[in-house]
């Protein structure tokens, strides 16, 4: 967009945010090629009408030289004449010139070849005419001057529709694993034997899913916060996703969004809702609209679940090992679980939890079991089911499989465990897998 047009939009931003009705503009902006469908979906998901108007004006300034006059045209067509006149008052006369002669291409309809049922199996695939379907590309986004669609490279099918997140960047994104095993004596927390097994499995698994994996071991509370802050300051614009995995002792704390907290090796905890805040839209703009995944292998509290009786044919009993341990610590006081800065973040104008999924190894308030020889029930099951099903199933379906399998385990022949997740994803998420 020309600099003079950007200044006009910036000068009238207050009036546009206050009076613009974005919902009437979407079809016209899409039809005229100003925005792609994915861009419009992102604007729609930004919140209230004012939030959508603010995002629309911001995105409009990133488009080509024809975006401004086409936007004025859409305002006129939707009856928003006052805003159109306001913007035109500060702009020179605008002539909309197509970058190239526009030609509408429609597929030529031809009759299907007639063949007998006996000949169907003999037909070659390339005998049947195939007509390309032009769709708006999203990476990189085309400017309004661009009148063609660049052919996509062959390979893994892109899933970047309104139903599924785009997950084809290579690498896909960053994955931070925090593995707390040896705790300081003053913390009065036991060593977490078997956690290194979990860490190794997840490091291999997410490397196989095309993530850049970084492992940090035995971090204190401040070091956990520093590691998350460093992750949030990275430029994620070329990536499609971000993953944080924390293996530690845990506890239950007061919360207003995501329950639970994880411990540093110094015995000081970090609430899960603070952990997720590091990657929200305020602290990490380059992850806006992209999935942020958190996997927490830690207890949600100190209560042990003894389960309830069911018919023998409803479950396949699985007995845990003799070395099963828990990662539970008693519930913490709510007075030290929230800081002023985090309370302010909870009142941000954008929908803070959007595009976030937090998967817990256990239901809030209950212990999480870990075998000192083979690792935790949750990680062992998650790793195996990702290996078996990531190529075909979305993440939420995979986590449901994990829930089902872990729920059938028994610690010491008595105690149960039920994983769960807080899901604020807006679309299906399919990981990259090797063919």
Q: Determine the strand fraction and express it as a percent band.
A: 5-15%
Poorly predicted segments:
92-102, 114-160, 300-319, 328-350
Look at the structure and give the mean pLDDT. 75
Q: Could you say which structural class the secondary elements and strand pairing correspond to?
A: alpha/beta
Measured as a percent range, the helix fraction is: 25-40%
Radius of gyration: 26 Å
Shape: elongated
Number of strands: 14
Write down the secondary-structure element order. HHHHHHHEHEHEEEEHEEEHEEEHHEE
Protein model, in words:
It is a single chain. This protein is of the alpha/beta class and 435 residues long. The chain has helices at 3-11, 13-19, 26-31, 37-44, 49-60, 67-77, 81-89, 195-208, 221-232, 272-277, 340-345, 377-389, 395-407; strands spanning 173-179, 211-217, 241-247, 250-251, 261-263, 269-271, 292-297, 318-319, 324-326, 356-360, 369-371, 375-376, 409-410, 420-423. The protein has a 6-stranded mixed sheet with strand order 2-1-3-7-10-14, sandwiched between helices. Strands 4-5-6 form a 3-stranded antiparallel sheet. Strands 9-11-12 form a 3-stranded antiparallel sheet. The protein is elongated, with a radius of gyration of 26 Å. The two termini are 41 Å apart. The relative contact order is 0.11. Residues 92-102, 114-160, 300-319 and 328-350 have low confidence and may be disordered.
In short:
The chain has 435 residues and is of the alpha/beta class. Helices cover 29% and strands 13% of the residues. The chain is built from 13 helices and 14 strands.
């Amino acid at each position: 967009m020309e600099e003079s047009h950007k200044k006009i939009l910036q000068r009238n931003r207050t009036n546009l945010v206050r009076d613009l009705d974005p919902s009437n503009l979407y079809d016209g902006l899409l039809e005229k090629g100003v925005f792609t469908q994915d861009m419009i979906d992102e604007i729609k998901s930004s919140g209230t009408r004012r939030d959508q108007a603010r995002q629309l004006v911001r995105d409009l300034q990133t488009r080509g030289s024809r975006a401004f006059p086409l936007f004025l045209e859409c305002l006129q067509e939707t009856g928003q004449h006052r805003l159109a006149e306001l913007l035109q008052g500060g702009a020179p006369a605008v002539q909309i010139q197509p970058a190239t002669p526009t030609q509408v291409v429609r597929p030529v309809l031809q009759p299907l070849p007639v063949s007998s049922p006996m000949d169907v199996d003999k037909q070659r695939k390339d005998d049947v005419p195939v007509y390309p379907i032009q769709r708006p590309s999203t990476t990189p986004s085309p400017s309004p001057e661009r009148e063609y669609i660049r052919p996509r490279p062959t390979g893994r099918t892109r899933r970047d529709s309104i139903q599924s997140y785009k997950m084809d960047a290579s690498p896909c994104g960053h994955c931070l694993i925090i593995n707390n095993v040896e705790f300081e004596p003053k913390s009065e927390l036991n060593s977490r034997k078997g956690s290194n097994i979990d860490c190794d499995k997840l490091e291999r698994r997410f490397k196989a899913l095309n993530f850049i994996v970084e492992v940090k071991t035995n971090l204190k509370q401040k070091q956990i916060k520093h590691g998350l802050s460093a992750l949030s300051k990275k430029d994620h614009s070329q990536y499609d996703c971000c993953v944080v995995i924390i293996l530690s002792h845990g506890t239950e704390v007061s919360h207003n969004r995501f329950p639970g907290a994880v411990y540093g090796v110094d015995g000081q905890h970090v609430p899960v809702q603070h952990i997720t805040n590091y990657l929200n839209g305020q602290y990490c703009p380059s992850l806006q609209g992209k999935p942020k995944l958190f996997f927490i292998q830690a207890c949600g509290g100190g209560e042990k679940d003894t389960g309830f009786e069911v018919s023998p044919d409803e479950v396949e009993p699985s007995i845990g090992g003799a070395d099963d341990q828990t990662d539970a610590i008693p519930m913490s006081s709510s007075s030290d679980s929230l800081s002023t800065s985090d309370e302010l973040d909870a009142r941000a104008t954008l929908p803070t939890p959007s595009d976030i999924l937090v998967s817990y190894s256990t239901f809030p308030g209950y212990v999480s079991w870990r075998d000192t020889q083979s690792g935790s029930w949750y990680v062992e099951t998650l790793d195996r089911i990702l290996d078996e099903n990531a190529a075909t199933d979305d993440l939420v379906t995979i986590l449901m499989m994990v829930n089902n399998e872990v729920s059938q385990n028994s610690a010491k022949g008595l105690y149960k465990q039920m994983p769960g997740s807080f899901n604020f994803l807006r679309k299906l998420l399919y990981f990259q897998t090797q063919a």
